[in-house]
Amino acid sequence: MSETTLKLPPQVSAEEARVLLAMKLYETGRLSLGKAAEFSGYSKRTFMEMLGKAGVAVFDHPADELADEARD
């Protein structure tokens, strides 16, 4: 894992920045749910709840895939 140092504005805590980065990396498909939760420092369940509150889809499948699965 690589390491980066950031200078954050005083109104943004390191924890908040880490969680927001984990959310964005999950949302864009760069990290799995488990890896994003681990990176954020929260359990998978808590991270999923945080995603929901932030308006990030936990399960983002195209409608046609869901329809196919429903028929099966």
Offer a concise description of the structure.
The chain has helices at 14-27, 33-40, 44-53, 63-71.
Topology:
Elements lengths: L13 H14 L5 H8 L3 H10 L9 H9 L1
Helix pairs in contact: 1-2, 2-3
Largest sheet descriptor: none
Q: State the secondary-structure class.
A: mainly alpha
β-strand amount: under 5%
Radius of gyration: 15 Å
Question: Separation of termini?
Answer: 40 Å
Task: Compute the number of helices.
Answer: 4
Mean pLDDT level: 88
How many domains is the backbone divided into? 1
Judging from the principal axes of the Cα atoms, what is the shape? elongated
Structural description of this entry:
The chain is elongated. It has one domain. With 72 residues, it is an all-alpha fold. The protein is 57% helix and 0% strand.
Task: Supply database-style keywords.
72 residues; 57% helix; mainly alpha
